[in-house]
Amino acid sequence: MTNSSLNTQASLDENSPLEPSDDDASRAEGGEPRVESATPRKRLPGPSLNSQANTSESRKREDPVAKRVWHDMLKNKFHIQDVSSFLDAMGPGIPVQIGPIVEKARYALRTAANKLENAEKEKDMTGPMIKYLNKVVVDFPPTTKPSFHDTSNTRFPSVEDGDQQEHHTMPDITGSKPGQISHSGDWVWAQAGTVIELKYKIDIMDDKRRGIRDSQDAHNALTQLAKGARNLLMASGSCFVYVVAVFARTKARIFRFDRSGFSVTESFDFTTEKKHLPTFLWRLYNPQGYSMPLMRGADDTISLPTEPEQERMRKAVSNIQAYKGWGAEDIDGEHLWIRAARYNSHTGELEIVRCFTFGNILSRSDGLFGRATRVFRVILEEDVDAKEQDVNAEEPTVYALKDAWPQECRRPEADFYRLIEEHCKREVEEASDEEREQKQAILDSIAKCHGSLDLSVEHDNSDHDPQLHQTNPTSENGPNLPRRHMRLLLTPVGTPLKDFDSTKSLVGALFCAMRHHHTAYNAGVTHRDVSEGNVLFREVPLAGHEFNGFLLDWDYAEFTPAGAERFNERFPDNPLPAADVDKSLKDITGTFPFMAIEIIKNSDGVARHPVLHGPHHDLESFFWLLVWMVLRHTNLNKDPLACSKLFDRLGHEMKYTYVGEPMPIDKSNRPLYQLLDAYRQGVEDQNRPQPDTSNDDSLITRRAKVAPPPHVDLTHDEVLVWFESVLMQSKLPWPENDEAQEFVLRSTRKEERKKDGSLRVSMMKNATGDSSASLSAGTAVAGGSGSRKRAAAEADVSEGSESKKVKTAEGTVKRRGKKK
């Protein structure tokens, strides 16, 4: 049984894998999508560089693209504070415990200061620092006391899951979780409470300029700290975390990272300002307001179930009909109690509920800043209580619990779910007898939201601290775009598209998702982020349905003008200004590999006028998603770098060239080839170049004897017919036993021995368009940035059909003819 991920996305939110730019300017949260207004596109670390990596080089620590991405993300997301203000934000005043702690650690500090002053290299700083830190915490209460350890040569495995894993990390000093006063064996990030990075000379920040120092060493050091913070956030699920940089032997800075940026103290000498580090550590490990031993920043709405509670809830899961085939190893996992909310089925009011997680986590964004989406499989304690009290009660529902940090300015995702479901119900009520069954099937199969909880505000029956669930203003040089902590209860639970058991089921899942997209558009909602993580298979198939895909995650959706009007009519308690819709539809939104050509052109500033994101752009995204799956998870294209060559380009040119040629895949899977080639031609028609009519003196305009054919936008009806033709009408057989192939990252480096014995290293044409850099053995290989304009000339396309129609056994998958 596969309990893998429900949604990997880095979209642009907030800068999607490109993270959208809501945040700022683009989306990418692993890994999350992209949103831009007028800012240039930029990638953020996250799924875009991990789950969406297409070459092995892109996962390397020294990959120039990854380094640049981290630098760009961090440069405008910080705020420098004086030390007192920073520590006061952790708790006002100086705790009474600090005086005795400082006095007891006085000798250890003096010894550490002497050794640090005489240190000749970074490694010499480790031992003295650890002895001092452990002396500071020696009298902490047993339940909150940590321990500090030398981990400079200890490899922490990637906190990411499966094939998304990045390189390992080795923090210099690791502070344990509260109550862990010793440690032996290997380390994992879930055991770490904080990390301290030692730099012999490098100071990351410039207090006078109030900025990051402009040197590669400073950027690398900041990236190292940020990765440590990212790993702590991912492993712990905390609202924010703290890390420390020690440099110039006795100087230090304390950093606080949350999901919108980081704040950092001014530099201080901890051997003379003796209270700063003890005060920080006391408040970090003994925070006020928690009812249990948690670190400051820990999520106060999550707790660990006791062993009897786990046993009770696991038994309840095993009694659910659809999960009776699951073994103990499937149900087990990191069990948590997580607070959420569900609409009362009678009153519609939100009620706080207690969710029990089981099985592997379904999805976890690997980005540092952004939505930081996590998805868990859960059942509710309230449902288990009801079933135990009444054996005739319905069995507990299994939900997908979505935990995320959207920007406060974003429309609540639940609003889109509400309007779509309400539309579907009305369609069923008003349908004729002949249509009702089909309408009911759509209602039964769409994703639904059963509750939405905003943790940044107070709620009855919940004693959490709302301030923990809001991000701090962190930007001195750019806009502050605060985020809030949200939780949604959704159905159904999904499994990844890349786990398809046949190419027919893959196409069928996309067909289902496209129908859901059509339904949503008719309701008045445009999705705007069709991507791999947002189209899934149902974990529990619907009875009577041959295909079981669905579309979810309406984080970056927007109402159409008609949809906004309809929403305001039906939900007057939460009105939406029409002007907001028009402005939002001009945002550049999506996950980069799947974005439509026109949207990419708009983000590049190539488009001649602002582009409103329409349904035809999402329909094109479905095409790129299908191509992505075929190139990565089938053997129909023999080029191991085919996906990189197409999707790793930053501009639109490569995609534009791709749709102008026959599909570069083996024709042995005839139904799939026919669908892809018809779809390709439709995307080509949608992106035909148009003359610049604003230039009356254009030579082309004056010479043209026949006006060029206008572009023809894709429509739901047209594309759905293509899918129906190959899934339900064609007599051509689909292959059997063609389940998904595991995608293996390949290197762009090709090494050959020359006759003289030296090593020749050539770089295959890669994501940036660079090629054939010939080097001698021992020469460093540095990635370069090739011109995006070369991309169109570098397409590697294999032989394919040139017909204008895609023939089937019963006729053709019809395609719009070229207009003359």
From TrEMBL:
Residues 358-700 form the Protein kinase domain. InterPro entries: Kinase-like_dom_sf (IPR011009), Pkinase_fungal (IPR040976), Prot_kinase_dom (IPR000719), Tyr_kinase_AS (IPR008266). Residues 1-64, 146-180, 456-482, 745-820 are annotated as: Disordered. It comes from the Eukaryota. Residues 24-35, 456-467, 748-758 have a biased composition (Basic and acidic residues). One of its GO terms (molecular function) is protein kinase activity. Pfam families: Pkinase_fungal. Residues 771-780 have a biased composition (Low complexity). Gene3D superfamilies: Transferase(Phosphotransferase) domain 1. Residues 1-14, 146-156, 468-478 have a biased composition (Polar residues). This is Protein kinase domain-containing protein. It comes from Roridomyces roridus.
